[in-house]
Amino acid sequence: MSIAPVSKSEVELFIELEPTVEKEVNRHVATAEEWFPHQYVPYSEGRTYSGVVDGEDWEPGDSKVAPESREALLVNLLTEDNLPGYHYALRSVFGQEGAYGYWTNRWTAEEDRHGIVIRDYLTVTRAIDPVALERARMKHLQVGYAMPHGKDLLRGATYVAFQELATRVSHRNTGKASGEPLCERMMARVAKDENLHMIFYRNFIGAAFQADPSQTLRAVADVVTTFEMPGNTIDGFLRKSVAIANAGIYDLRLHHDEVVMPILRKWGVFDLSGLDAEAEQARERLAAFLENLDQAATRFEDRRAERQARKAARQS
């Protein structure tokens, strides 16, 4: 009769996984490419806005960005704006010393570029009403941010692994839907950063599976089955997320096929053996959730196709 190993304490895991963090930091620094936000902003197209300096009011027709992409750009930027909250949350999980602390600060510095470049682009090209944008920023940041799973090491890192990939997919598709070549290039550049960040967290949790598979699987199941994007506290987020889903920028199918499943396959979640009873139950719960998610994604796709067909019929 085999006995499942006792789960390690968070302190034990923290210490055991630090060499992985150092390794992944070195890999990331060697792989990441330096880039500059100002090179993605067409400053020569800018015009003075009305206000303290006499200029022109913003008008919806000012933007060359497709309407379907504007809502996503707003959500993406407001999400990036909450970086102070994310930094505090990650530091609460990883601390500020050694390789963990170095990564937290490096990640924060890279993420800060995303808000800079998107805001400068949107302001200069008049893609979004700057008054509405600033009011939304103030309202969103006033809500604050708390890591969904508190200071839990495994759940915190697992959440960010999925969140980074979800953000990458959203940014990339937002650029594609924009209909504006420079916007697409900018969002592709931001998405490239997000992908590298995802790899860091994905590999960290991959090492955690080696250190304590049962405890890590329980963490993964908890995160996947309760996952919400960090921008879910944005005012009107549900309405905005529906518009984004209808535009095919980020929807349940993309979440299932391009975010959740690739990472779970990389970790080999459904091939693990020697799990304790609680972990086996968590895996069963995860499998049931994924089946329901897949079915919900199909239903949404069918309804969206029906709506598009009715709209096309009315216009013909």
Detail the poorly predicted runs.
none
Query: How many structural domains does the protein architecture include?
Result: 1
The CATH superfamily is identified as Ribonucleotide Reductase, subunit A
Overall body shape: globular
Fraction of helical residues: over 70%
CATH architecture heading: Orthogonal Bundle
What does this structure look like?
- The chain is mainly α and 316 residues long.
- The chain has a single domain (10-315), classed as Ribonucleotide Reductase, subunit A.
- Helix content is 72%, strand content 0%.
- Helix 2 (67-81) packs across helix 9 (237-246), helix 3 (83-94) packs antiparallel against helix 4 (98-124) and helix 8 (213-226) packs parallel to helix 11 (277-315).
- It is globular.
- It starts with 9 loop residues before the first helix and ends with a helix.
- 37% of the residues are buried.
- The mean pLDDT is 94.
Give me some keywords for this one.
single chain, 316 residues, Ribonucleotide Reductase, subunit A, coiled coil, oxidoreductase, metal-binding, fatty acid metabolism, 11 helices, Fatty_acid_desaturase-2, mainly alpha
Q: Topology, please?
A:
Blueprint: H1 10-31, H2 67-81, H3 83-94, H4 98-124, H5 130-143, H6 153-178, H7 181-211, H8 213-226, H9 237-246, H10 252-267, H11 277-315
